[in-house]
Design a protein that fits this description.
CATH superfamily of the largest domain in chain B: Alpha-helical ferredoxin
Helix content of chain B: 25-40%
CATH architecture of the largest domain in chain B: Orthogonal Bundle
Mean pLDDT of chain A: 95
Largest sheet of chain A: 5 strands, parallel
Number of helices of chain B: 8
CATH topology of the domain at 475-618 in chain A: Methane Monooxygenase Hydroxylase, Chain G, domain 1
CATH architecture of the domain at 475-618 in chain A: Up-down Bundle
Number of helices of chain A: 17
Strand content of chain A: 15-25%
Strand content of chain B: 5-15%
Structural class of chain A: alpha+beta
Largest sheet of chain B: 5 strands, mixed
Helix content of chain A: 25-40%
CATH class of the domain at 475-618 in chain A: Mainly Alpha
Distance between the termini of chain A: 43 Å
Largest interface: A-B, 82 and 78 residues
Order of helices and strands of chain B: EEHEEEEEHHHHHHH
Low-confidence stretches of chain B: none
Oligomer: heterodimer
Amino acid sequence: MQFQLDAKIPSGPLDRKWSKHKFDLKLVNPANKRKYTVIVVGSGLAGAAAAASLGELGYNVRCFCYQDSPRRAHSVAAQGGINAAKNYRNDGDSVWRLFYDTIKGGDFRARESNVYRLAELSVNIIDQCVAQGVPFAREYGGLLANRSFGGAQVSRTFYARGQTGQQLLLGAYSALSRQIAQKTVSMHTATEMLDVLVVDGRARGIVVRDLRTGRISTHLGDAVVLCTGGYSNVFFLSTNAKGCNVTATWRAYRRGAGFANPCFTQIHPTCIPSSGEHQSKLTLMSESLRNDGRIWVPKQAGDKRHPSDIPESERDYYLERRYPSFGNLSPRDIASRAAKERCDAGFGVGPGGLGVYLDFADSIKRLGRKVIEERYGNLFEMYESITGEDPYTEPMRIYPAPHYTMGGLWVDYNLMTTIPGLFAAGEANFSDHGANRLGASALMQGLADGYFVVPYTIGDYLARSGPSGLGSDHAAVASLEREVGDRIKKLVSLNGNRTVDSIHRELGRLMWDKCGMSRNAAGLREALQKIPAIAERFWREVRVTGSGEELNQCVEKAGRLADFLEFAELMCIDALERNESCGGHFREEYQTPDGEALRNDNEYCYAAVWGLRGTEGGRLTHDLTKEPLTFENVHLAQRSYK
Amino acid sequence: MKLTLYVWRQKSAAQEGEFRRYDMQEVSPDSSFLEVLDLLNEQLILKGEEPIEFEHDCREGICGCCSMVINGRPHGPKKLHTTCQLHMRNFEDGATVYVEPWRAAAFPVVKDLVVDRSSFDRIIQSGGYISVNTGSAPEANSVPIGKEVIDTAMDAATCIGCGACVAACPNGSAALFTAAKISHLGLLAQGQPERYDRVLRMVDQMDKELFGSCTNHGECQEACPKGISIKYISMMNRDFIRATAARVMDPKGAMKAQ
């Protein structure tokens, strides 16, 4: 499917676009708002914020989450902080600077207008959260504290210990809970969206499965907002929660939504390495550790000595060697790739040689154990509890892990997808982070979309389009429910000799090897050969126990994997099509002589928007539409950290 | 390492449950407790048996999904850890381990180790918020809050809503959970306008949900993976008494007509 893309970017100067646009947006009369039903899928930062705000406005909102409570969405796990251009530190921050850092951090593959709006709204988010009672860290004088984060030279990150995501989510959850009590929002927990109902080219509802009873039902609405997060679990092992999945956005894709830049994924450099086959997920260690830790591997490949037995002269501090000016504080994408390069060359440490040392010995010697304990105590404890090793006396072992996905459903300036009435917010859309996201920007985007963008733009859509008017007796409703039910029945009938997880691991390993931290055309072609074979094995060899009419996590996992298997192909196709390196997308063929990412602005300065064409020989086929990115306010530059 | 697991199996709330024995071989001491259940489930599925249902999601101790009592202790033997953060090196080779769901009248079993904790959500819905609409917030730094106050509020706000406190309490009380939210908001300047109304409504809802009363056992504090102190229960009680007094007395201390 080819699209006639209209990003609906308002005209006028960058810093006036959003205020002008807000004035141009149509309003829904307060008395009419309750006649409209808005469906919000997901209850993370974007979803809870959107549902609460729409409820406050008077819309009739239905919110859905797969967890047993909206408070558990994976936004809860974000550690570091949230950026905002408050300039409380008087260090030269501004909306413009936050905008510029985000555009540059994204390696110039995001839309200027959206990113500027994000930077503008960042200040309102902090106000809103403080008013809700979010206990951000404060100075002794009682005012808000800030910390520094990667990719910026100003101190603009607000935080609540190492649990910023949790506190922001609980703020949004409390606002949502208030609306639930006031009955403007009806909350459907343990309910998973399995398809979106599109009739006559407009999104009119969703089909869901009650995860406790297996009951399949349709919820009709006048607009649908997907706030369903990212797809890092295509790699099986990632820092995402186990339940995170691509199903909602992929089902939307299959119904005609465009999917933009699926190959833009972020691999976080400091995670605890996998300790063996039993590993079910990976745990992030905050990037702040690189302030005081030195990263190294032995100079001799396969060196099995204990790290303390390896003398200084036989250690390779490869980040300091390759990037003398940024050293251990090189950006995420650079640090991740450098670790992979050393491990691939046989210098890795720990089980399977998939790890590098992050060593605090020098800092402990210089600053004393107490200072390190104050700065990183909780992280050191977490590391000790997972690995059983004491990072005060021996270096941590770390390795990169999939963490965030910049790609997502294509949306216009109003955050509407290519399907009228279907919106996407937060990590589920592609809009703000380009090819690489800066730290502390995911929380900002989720809340900006949910609190401050969607509540305005949905009103405009509803005012222009009117009620959906589709009755539950419409033939399309029964037909889609049947389709979803048949799919569950098909999954339950699978009676092979492999588990869902074993196939998911197989897919994950392939994606990690061929479409992970670095990619090349031959590898991507190989993956595109192998994925359909894995999918075939899935449908032939997997075993699903129990029935579809009860709580059955086996069926849930199988359905999600089936969608990942289809999606993985598109990810590889996109990575193969983008013949350049930018941000998290590193194509080995396109690098500078000293191994850095080589962007190609002449040919690839666009968002790649994929649309489903159809099926050929049992395989999905896809069309590419390009949304050219125009930069009127920033100069496209090559990033260098040497 | 080897393990003998006795896991609570219960098909549904309506059916009776029982412990079932599973002998595990070759368990890696580096695996987490949930990864052992993953491994067991893989084996069960391949034998055509139904896997054990259990709640889990983030697997890093913050989402609050974990809801298992391990050898009689919510979240198992390691203090300040959730089940998903518990690693097998904390058990001896050949250990016998009993795994059962949270047990409390307000947390009915859904299936196996999964319980229904929606009562917690309803307590929050009854008043666990500050009434502020999107867009109406004043400038964030307009109200200074002392560092000690914010730190005390944060200690309470760190609650993950897992329900270990209820599972540990001999009375099945939700006092620690409810008190943590009441104290978090009640300590902040922003939470003052609704402070006394909030405590009345939340305590009332807590009572409606079949949670028992707090009789100061302190087991909740011991079991809490986030180390939330029972001092917050005292704070809640103080606010509750004040609020109750305010409800029955006028500002001069005379009894109001009820």
